[in-house]
Amino acid sequence: MALFVDSLPGCVRAAAFWTLVYSYCLLCACTAFIKLFCSILIRPRRTFKKISREVTPSCLNDPFLGTHCYVRIKDSGLRFHYVAAGERGKPLMLLLHGFPEFWYSWRHQLREFRREYRVVALDLRGYGETDAPSCKENYKLDYIIVDVKEILDSLGYSKCVLIGHDWGGMIAWLIAICYPEMVTKLIVLSFPHPTVFTEYILRHPSQLIKSGYYFFFQMPWLPELMYTINDYKILKDLFTSDTTGIRRQSCRFTKEDMEAYLYIFSQPGALSGPLNHYRNIFSCLPLKHHHVTMPTLLLWGENDAFVEVEMAELTRIYVKNYFQLSVLSQASHWLQQDQPELVNNLIWTFLEEERFRTKN
User: Fold this and answer.
1) Is residue 342 part of a domain?
2) Does residue 29 lie within any of the structural domains?
3) Which domain holds residue 109?
4) What are the phi and psi torsion angles at 323 (to 5°)?
5) How many angstroms separate the CA atoms of 105 and 102, rounded?
6) By C-alpha distance, which of 210, 203, 235, 244 is closest to 101?
7) How far is the C-alpha of 336 from the C-alpha of 190, rounded, in Å?
8) Which of 82, 200, 333, 338 is labelled catalytic?
9) Partner of 159 at 20 to 30 A CA spacing, among 21, 57, 67, 153?
């Protein structure tokens, strides 16, 4: 399919690309309507049942995870929430979460790396306690990248170890490309280089199907509705089902962990901001080829239900520095929560090896 599209004139190629996007959006929307209709027929009461969640789960205020902080950046005027652990003045480790997550997805890393780093787990624009502009145009990738740059400045740092997972991984790649002077080391979990992703998805229908939610999220209001039915069943299943969830018994979500996620995403309007990130992605595609110039670690789950492992190895050609890839056996998409001890050890090893390599 991609070879055929590449051979077309520019205007025709653009038309073919957008025809694909909108056709798949329509298909995903029709599928969602059918699921909703069936749910209403079978379980009408349960379909629209939602539990009120007004009390903050205690795990979100655990002092051992760090301190809740806020910073307002100049360019947009938005107020960002983050949780910070470790002493001020230590090297900065900045953590960018994916979808549908928030700072709490990095709880294991906040505890682990505070010994040697100032660890900051950010709520991205539109997530959690960070401000959420209502207009979808405010979630373009260019704005998100500038957010991170300004937050770094506001924290009093000029550079950091940057770690991103899933959508936060996409942002981390782009920051490393656009502002290489800001990133001493790049660590990405469960997302390939953006150019690999855009080229691979056009050539592999299996990945196109796995990324169907990108297209579904282009619809107005319907994705928000689908996430709320049956008291946020889709959200629960993402982290707990046999298909997409965390499988290791010792690392599965506790009831309190799940309630933390449900509390955050059940707040009024809490889903629109995260979904608006995706509603801007096709205006930024296809991306040009860009190289990453800092040492890079890529971690991938063998059982990732959303991104195919073949993309991990293809990423290597875009890193013009030391590149390390580790595929974690039996791991799901939610790596830093699924296998936190192994992920932390791999990150420590990468950081220490790179430090030793630099000295010599």
Assistant:
1) yes
2) no
3) 78-202+250-359
4) -130, 130
5) 6
6) 235
7) 10
8) 333
9) 67
DSSP, residue by residue, 241-303: STTTS---GGGSPPHHHHHHHHHHHTSTTTTHHHHHHHTTGGGG-SPPP--B-S-EEEEEETT
Choice among 82, 214, 278, 318 that is catalytic: 278
Residue 47 lies in a domain: no
**Residues 290 and 177 sit within 8 Å (Cβ to Cβ):** yes
* Continuous segment of H or E residues that includes residue 26: helix 10-42
Q: In Å, what is the CA distance from 16 to each residue of 8, 24, 67, 197, 199?
A: 9, 12, 49, 18, 15
For 285-332, write each residue's pLDDT tens digit.
555 658 999 999 999 999 999 999 999 999 999 999 999 999 999 999
| Token representation of residue 27 | 């298909």
**Do 49 and 242 touch, CB atoms closer than 8 A?**
no
**Structural domain count, the chain:** 1
In this predicted structure, the answer to whether residue 5 has a pLDDT above a threshold of 80 is no
pLDDT at site 4: 44
Q: Tens digits of per-residue pLDDT, 183-225?
A: 999 999 999 999 999 889 888 889 988 988 888 898 899 899 9
Known catalytic membership, residue 333: yes
37, HSE (Cβ side, Cα atoms, 13 Å): 6
Catalytic residue among 147, 166, 257, 338, which? 166
DSSP string covering 181-240: GGEEEEEEES---HHHHHHHHHH-HHHHHHTHHHHHTTSSSHHHHHHHHHHHHHHHHHHH
Q: What is the domain-level CATH number for residue 161? A: 3.40.50.1820
Region for residue 128 given its phi and psi (left: phi exceeds 0; alpha: psi -120 to 50; beta: otherwise): left
Q: Is 6 a catalytic residue?
A: no
* Under 8 Å between Cβ of 191 and 170: yes
Sequence-ordered list of residues with C-beta below 8 angstroms from that of 349, at least 6 positions apart, any chain: none
Residue reference for tokens 């959303």: 306
Q: What is the pTM of this model?
A: 0.91
pLDDT tens-digit series, residues 164-191: 999 999 999 999 999 999 999 999 999 9
In this predicted structure, what is the pLDDT of residue 287? Answer: 58
Q: Is residue 73 part of a domain?
A: no
